[in-house]
Amino acid sequence: MKDGIHPEYRPVVFRDVSSDVSFLTRSTVKSKETVKWEDGKEYPLVKVDISSASHPFFTGKQKFVDAAGRVEKFQRKFSGNYFGKKK
Question: pTM here?
Answer without folding.
Answer: 0.63
